[in-house]
Amino acid sequence: MSTSTSWKQHVTAAEAAPPQIPLLASKISFAVDASGSTAGRVMEKQKEFVLGMLQDYQHPSSVLMWGSSVTHPKPASEMTWNHRNWGTSPEIIFTDPVVTAELKSCDMWYLLTDGEVPSPLNFARRTVEVGMANSPVVFVITNRSGTKPNSVNISVGISVFASASDAAVVFKDTASGEIYVLATKGAFEPLTAGFELDLERWESLPLFVNEDAFKAALKDVNIVGAANRTSSVAIDLGRAWQEKHGCLVDVDLLLAQILPDSIPQEEFIDLLQDDAFDAIALLCKTRGLLPKLRDWLLARKERAAVIELRDVSGAAEILQQLRDGTLPADAADGLRQRLRSAHQSNLNDYRARQNENKPSPLLPHINRCLAAITALEKAGYAANILDRRSNRAMRAAMVSSDDVDKQLANLDLEDSVEAHRATCSICCNDDTVMSLALMASANPSDNTTDFALNFPLAAGASFVNRDVISAQFVCFQCALAMHQIDPNRGSMYNEPITAVLPLAKYEGVNRQYITNCLARVLTGGLATGASGLVQLLMSIILTTMKAKEWAKPNDNDAEIRARREGMLWMLNNLISNSSCRETFEEGSPWVPFHQALRWTLKTYADEGIFSWTVRYPVPGFLILLELLGMIDNAEIPETIRVAKLMHEIVTVYMSRIVKPSTNKLDVQREILKIVYAEFNAEGVPRNLPDHTLAINSADVAYERLVSWLNLPGSTTLIGQVRQAGAEKYASALQYLAFRLFVEDSHQSPKGYFQRAAEADVHMQTATSKPAELTRADVLPLFTQMWKGEPEIPDHVNVTADTMPRFVSPYSPSVLRCGVAGCPVRFDGEGYHPESIRKARAAHLTQVFAIKGKQSQNANGLPENTGRLEAPTMAHVTLFSSISKTWRALERDVKVAILGEVKPDTSLDVSQPRLAAFIAAVLNHVCVVSGRGDIYKHNMWDHVIWVLPSFFVALHTAAQMKQVEDVDLELVENSLEARIQWEVARKEL
User: Fold this and answer.
1) What is the pTM of this model?
2) If both were cysteines, with which of 195, 622, 698, 704 could 674 make a disulfide (CB 3.0 to 4.6 Å apart)?
3) Are strands 20-22 and 222-224 parallel, antiparallel or unpaired?
4) Domain 20-228 maps to which CATH number in 3.40.50.720, 3.40.50.410, 3.40.50.980, 3.10.20.310?
């Protein structure tokens, strides 16, 4: 690095890029919080993290404990893992020369904590003083996860994250031990690649179930080691800055450039772009430099005068008179003539006062950054300061009503201006510029979230924006005058109007007025960017035209037709004249919006299911397709909707399996219902004799998918996919659900699709050529676990008459085979348990064997059957499951069941308690036990057939114990006890 005093630090031509080493082959140290609050679970999990990261680690490492004091570094094996009743003062780490020397000699370090400090300033200063500000670091917070990740306190380590070029913030949950990644920089960015991080939702974050999984994700991370790393305090301002300027920035020296001309304007604007200013502002917050940063900005702020539009001709008063519905026709016509003249007079007035004063191009950037500084000053040190919501929306300048009023002065409504003109129903002016009256969003903050900033087309379709557009459709000047008279009753329907848009070409002087109006309406005044605000409006217009009766297609209603024509004109106007990043992401060039729309088709053609287009959230994706339909010669491929639906299925599945309020197995079992028609228990599909009936038809699969997704827009998307033909893509969608059922690890959709396609040729077909994966292809895959045939069918295909019966409350006879007609006995050598066990095992293994399968159970009992795996034995744990399920019931439930069982009569399975018991038995057989052929098509029948004998055996045993049936404790279930029971019964 250059030793120049310049605030920009370049790598000189003579300096080669420093060599890098694998992170997992580097010298590391763990600085572990040992303050009093870490006692118990936190320290246990901190220890788990350290030892997990060091397991099989062959390179130098050390551990130190810190709090209000600090221990010397030791090998992890020599560390005493308990808290020290210390306070929490991370700056103490660098007060000991031995500790400082050890950390500086490491290639990277881990900072572990559970708590917070009032301010990180002291720690930040110490890291700079000792030359540790730019050391690669992983900051690990260990605590119980709250409702949202943005509430996690990061005050202890935020300063090292802000200053280091290579850093990560991770959270280890003390309840589950799982590790979430909250933020990354530099070399650690691969950890979050493919994820749309949203610190409002845990499920959006990369999740690693343990330290082994976390280490696997770090295997390709390379860092600059200590031997080649400078101790510079300059920081990396992000990829966009590096690509253009190729340097680090010394913030202290930068803030010393206080003279307005000390930094070229273009370079200064680059410093105020999103990622660059985020890095500067975050560092300044952790070092107490925000006041200096504000002064630095204010030194370059210029103020510009604008001209206000005024009602100098009494148009508002005339409009108020026109609202009187009792006026005679001739009086109303006279007022309309005066109103038209007043409108024209007002236009002439503001045109006469227009001038060339325009604000500096720096002004909007500076205003946004000043707003961000104010927000950061008010903010604490929760993780939300890392969120894009903080970095983009909070930086946006506030647009006030005065700003909007002043922008009226610049409006260009000349006859030469391209606009949508019609006859106004109020002033009856012909060929006049029409308008849209807008009401404030029901919740403007929803339009400034990270989600809305990244996906404005989706945010615009949300419920909070459903009532933004008024049904009023009159000329701009009438609408504006009504709004100015009384904003709370600012439309002809007495609605609270926030802004009035002229249906004029979106360019030049009109662009800023419309954009500022949209900020007032949609974001509560936050000027989050013209492109995003315009996309919000386009989405709102299209949603309104589908949702509101007064805007739906109706050729028989002239007013509705006129309104729709105006709304469609505005849509086409915005598509043609607004601008957007070409790839909808920061860093790409600005292009006309219609060009960016065409790019969405190109990227899908190039990348398919991995494309940005497919990743766009469903409500916005549907809007995107509608907008593409308005572009000339834009051919929308049929498969794009299928790819989006598959992406949505994976996205939803991955988010649900990590959602704290849901059970992962429940999520997996629900998705399987898209594939299979019937189930013995949750997640256990029933093997119907006709396999074609066991698998859902295309129509049923789509219905189940609608029910499973149940998200905004998903039903519409599924309906559009079905329009191509019910059978065409159903098999590909069902195969995806089938594969997801056994997917346990949380990952990004991109990562999942990549790995699945590499491992499975059918998944590759499903994701690239979904129509080619047919029902004939998938049916054998869906039914492969049912293909086994029993060696001796008679013992498997039992009937109500041949089914074994309970002899004791635990099982059928252990002295002989219970299948009717089978002569085999197990007591040929007497009643010794071991001889009976061997004879019984040999018989069970023989009669319940499946062709081609070798059981590993020496006792002849069924083995565990994995999810959707073929069984190795044809029987199940039916009898033991009935006994165990009964034993687990509460006494009052047992009483209720026995009250529904009538002696010497068949069971009435319609009785609620009995039916619930049968379902619980099936769940035990198929899920809790999960052994053998749990897919049997007549499992329910088997339970019904044997239950009467269970209740008889239960009653007999209770009589022998001289207790009530419900009070009999089923605890004597050993083989020896059952032999004695059966012998005793024979002797009675």
Assistant:
1) 0.71
2) 704
3) antiparallel
4) 3.40.50.410
